[in-house]
Amino acid sequence: xxxxxxxxxxxxxxxxxxxxxxxxxxxxxxxxxxxxxxxxxxxxxxxxxxxxxxxxxxxxxxxxxxxxxxxxxxxxxxxxxxxxxxxxxxxxxxxxxxxxxxxxxxxxxxxxxxxxxxxxxxxxxxxxxxxxxxxxxxxxxxxxxxxxxxxxxxxxxxxxxxxxxxxxxxxxxxxxxxxxxxxxxxxxxxxxxxxxxxxxxxxxxxxxxxxxxxxxxxxxxxxxxxxxxxxxxxxxxxxxxxxxxxxxxxxxxxxxxxxxxxxxxxxxxxxxxxxxxxxxxxxx
Length: 284
Hints:
The chain is 43% helix and 20% strand. By secondary structure, it is of the alpha/beta class. Helix 1 packs across helix 3 (50-60).
């Protein structure tokens, strides 16, 4: 998780929150005061992002001691103590909101993802995320998806071929688009194309696409498309996937289900930080 992007994101988040200094803490707490804080779950959840809490506090003060009581991916019960942080009391207070923001957001995504994954066990077509992520947070959100038990689709435009509707439009059709793509990428690169109807599906099959994405198709149409493809390509379904219809979609025989809601609609979970021991003195 430790990357230049992650470190920069933490620095930006701390600067955004603390700015020129925490005026409340500075007025109340001596720099010499030490204490211990715990982060406690206030709902059942899947924990993700513990390392981010450590990194936030290490950025503020390298002597901070971070002690997790669980691991990313663990199911956590309401009231469970997930970690302890020991160090200067002023630093514990300054980093509280930033650390919780990372932990609550990532755990929310992991919790949402686990719900989707568990709903189709043991059928398990592969559930994957999309690029519908919070700008700047993509790497963290996709890590949280993996912690929740699903897989990542492409990280960005640079690491996977996906020919979408606008690409098809400007290329003059599906067959010209796939033909041009095969002439311009390595033979080791899989070519995925999005189709919206059966006419496009037939063209994608004829052009020998490696992966065919069925975009916003009805369940009966998905089932029929899977039969037409008949193993000639991997079948991905995307668009408008809801939890209520997930099992029905899994039963159609598709290989991959991509779900934007894993990230764009995940709700942050409820976690709280409490100071549990203090050795403090008031600033005068």
